[in-house]
Amino acid sequence: MNVGRMGAAIPPVTKNLLIINALLWLATIAFRQSGFVDLEQYLGLHFWRAHDFNAAQLFTYMFMHDSSGITHLFFNMFSLWMFGVTLERVMGPKKYLFYYLTCGLGAAAVQQLTWEFTWQNEFVVAMANQNGLTFDQVRNLLASGELNDIVQQFHGMLVTVGASGAVFGILLAFGMLFPNLPMYIIPFPFPIKAKWMVIGYGLVELFFGMTGVMSGVAHFAHLGGMLFGFILLMYWRKNIRGGYGNGYY
Asked: Which of 18, 43, 91, 195 has minimal CB crowding within 10 Å?
């Protein structure tokens, strides 16, 4: 199959999502190297308490990726291509795009809640370790308002980028629509049903999020994408005649 046919085989929404994510990743690198603008700072999702947060970031962050390497972009786009092509054909382009964006927005909302409930502990630990203070001393300084300027700087450091929340929603939908489809996942030498793959991914993300393993990854945002995807799929199943898509399910 030649490149033209491969491109034509990808339905329009998935194709455009792949292109937009790739172009923004390239633009982020080019603009940063030229000193023009840091797109991650403008389009990445900031904590709502930070001075550089704006509501548009709840949407734009899901099209941005870590520009220090290609791994983040590659795995998200590979998963989007692998599962999104089938889902778009089953759901139809409009419903598929609505689902994708809903999962991404849901992931952003959950990430904001995660920051809201955890930032103080993270800040206290960081300040205590850097300044040779006890946790109680830092907590007292925080409560007194003496660290307001430093706190604002810390808030500005809480930024997340990536399509992972939306992609995890795609994985969930695939597992729910094709629960018994056998999947081959490295490093397992045997097939795993799609429903068990999705459950496994969810449990791993929950474990990582609760234990702090791979703390630089927004694990609860991933779970947020799956949660909002599940809610939307259940709503469609219950309220829309024809199920999830155009009569294929």
From this structure: 195
Give the SS3 label for residue 101: helix
CA distances from residue 118 to 78, 111, 113, 165, 212 in whole angstroms, order as listed: 31, 10, 9, 19, 11
Residue 172 domain-assigned (yes or no): yes
Cis, peptide link before residue 182, omega less than 30° from 0: no
In this predicted structure, what is the pLDDT of residue 5? 43
Kindly report the CA angle at 221 between 220 and 223, in degrees rounded to 5?
A: 60
HEC-encoded secondary structure of 69-86: CCHHHHHHHHHHHHHHHH
Residue 109 CA, chain-centre distance (Å), reads 11
Q: What pLDDT, on the 0 to 100 scale, is given for residue 2?
A: 42
Identify the domain containing residue 39 by its residue range. 3-239
Query: What values do phi and psi take at 176, rounded to 5?
Result: -80, -35
Please state the pTM of the whole predicted model.
0.86
Q: Is residue 29 part of a domain?
A: yes
CA distance 199 to 1: 34
User: By the 8 A CB rule, do 163 and 104 touch?
Assistant: yes
Please report, for the domain that includes residue 135, its CATH number. 1.20.1540.10
The answer to the question of residue 213 being in a domain is yes
Chunk the chain into consecutive blocks of 10 residues (it has 249) and report each block's average pLDDT, rounded to whole numbers: 52 97 95 86 93 94 92 92 93 96 96 91 85 85 86 88 94 90 72 79 70 69 93 88 47
3-state DSSP assignment of residue 115 = helix
pLDDT at 210: 64
| Cα separation, 143 vs 114, whole angstroms | 20
pLDDT of 213 reads: 56
Tokens of 43: 């389009």
